[in-house]
Amino acid sequence: MNHKYLIQLMLSTLLAMFFLGCSGGGQNTGADVGKIPLIDTHIHLYDTSRPDGVPWPPESDKVLYRPVLSQHFDAVSEANNVTATVIVEASDRIEDNQWVLDLVKHNPQRYIGLVGNLPIGTDEFAGLLERFAADKRFVGLRMRQRPGEEKFFTEAVWRDLKLMADKGLTLDVLLANFDLADIDLVASRVPNLKILINHLTGLIITGEAADEAWAKDVRKAASHPNVYCKVSGIFQRTGKRPSPKELSFYAPIFKVVYDAFGENRVIYGSNWPVTDRGGEYSEQLSIINEFFEPMGETVLEKLYWRNASAFYGVKLNGD
Fold first, then answer.
1. CA separation (Å) from 161 to 166, 175, 177, 195?
2. What pLDDT, on a 0 to 100 scale, did the predictor assign at position 35?
3. What is the pLDDT of residues 3-49, one digit of tens each?
4. Does the pLDDT of residue 238 top 60, yes or no?
5. CA pair distance 21, 217, nearest whole angstrom
6. CB atoms < 10 A from the CB of 162, how many?
7. Where are the extended beta strands (E) located within the chain?
8. Residue 229 in contact with residue 202, Cβ under 8 Å?
9. Average pLDDT over the chain, rounded to an integer
10. Which CATH architecture has domain 31-312?
11. Cα–Cα distance measured from residue 152 to residue 135, given in angstroms and rounded to the nearest whole number
12. What pLDDT is recorded for position 33?
């Protein structure tokens, strides 16, 4: 082979590699890591055009107040190699649990679970739970409202949390009206209830070193083997629009959470479409991936799908 031809071949190969990389860059960050499946465990679906509207988001939210339906997340999934998702109900209307289940029944391979919203600690709770849990896609509940405030944890609430545990259902907790001390309390009182802390415990991420008092509370919550943490909502937690896109801004918080919970109890979620307030879905996923990728394929598999499958009891198609 003459040198001129060899040089031309090398240049052609390099150019092909460059253009191939450009064509996939910025869109598909999820499955580029060894084609690992990805379960997004935190999205919201709602329709602002329904006759009775929606309780969330408010009409004043110019980013989120729009119909957010399965076809919209289908597009996000296809662009970012999201294999499946668990929906988290953002409405306190009981029948909206059924509305979501009906909305996605056409695609059970992608929409594999729903974390619902039911009134814990009420007389009707047991009957409602029985009704919705009959659908295997109804995997648990999210605790985000706190009626009674400091008097929330009544005997009726403990009764209902234990009922959930006995049925093998899960509890997501949004730390807005609750805190890590509440997680410690629930995990101690109901040790067979699987608990998932949402959005990196809900703290405000500042880009600075992690507060030691917060880190201590995280470690205490993580000392309970039934408590997991969702690596989700990172743009929302900055309070900045657009949100920072550098890993260094988030890394101190990621490290505390990962060191406390370990590779078996961290779970990926996006908090889409709230992600849109801070940036693109692919940008948030890329930041998370940049932190966890050096830990190896086993850790990535656990973060992106194995831990979610074990926690929620959901399966991927063919798994």
1. 9, 17, 17, 11
2. 84
3. 433 333 333 333 333 333 333 333 444 444 548 999 999 999 999 99
4. yes
5. 43
6. 14
7. 39-43, 84-88, 111-116, 138-143, 170-173, 194-197, 227-231, 266-268
8. no
9. 91
10. Alpha-Beta Barrel (3.20)
11. 28
12. 57
Per the CB < 8 A criterion, the answer to whether 312 and 276 are in contact is no
- Geometric angle at alpha carbon 170, from 301 and 204, rounded to 5°: 70
Residue ranges of the domains in the chain? 31-312
Q: What is the secondary structure of 299-316 as a DSSP string?
A: HHHIIIIIHHHHHHT---
Q: What predicted TM-score, i.e. pTM, was given to this entire model?
A: 0.89
Cα 229 off chain centre by: 9
Dihedral sign from CA coordinates of 6, 11, 14, 19: negative
Record the tokens describing residue 140, joined without a space: 């648990």
pLDDT tens column, 168-203: 999 999 999 999 999 999 999 999 999 999 999 999
Q: Tell me the CB-side half-sphere exposure of residue 36, using CA atoms within 13 A.
A: 22
Say if residue 150 is exposed, middle or buried (CB neighbours under 10 Å; 0-12, 13-18, 19+).
Answer: exposed
Element (H, E) at 75: helix 70-80
Alpha helices per DSSP H over 81-211: 94-103, 125-133, 155-166, 180-189
Cα angle, residue 103 at apex, residues 100 and 109 outer, rounded to 5°: 100
pLDDT at residue 50, as a whole number: 96
Q: Which residue has the tokens 């709230």?
A: 274
First to last CA, the chain: 49
- CA nearest to 204, candidates 244, 162, 170: 244
**Helix, coil or strand: residue 1:** coil
| CA–CA separation, 82 and 32 (whole Å) | 11
Whole-angstrom distance, CA of residue 287 vs CA of residue 279: 12
CB 233 within 8 A of CB 174: no
CB contact set of 114 (below 8 Å; sequence gap of 6+): 86, 87, 88, 89, 97, 100, 101, 137, 138, 139
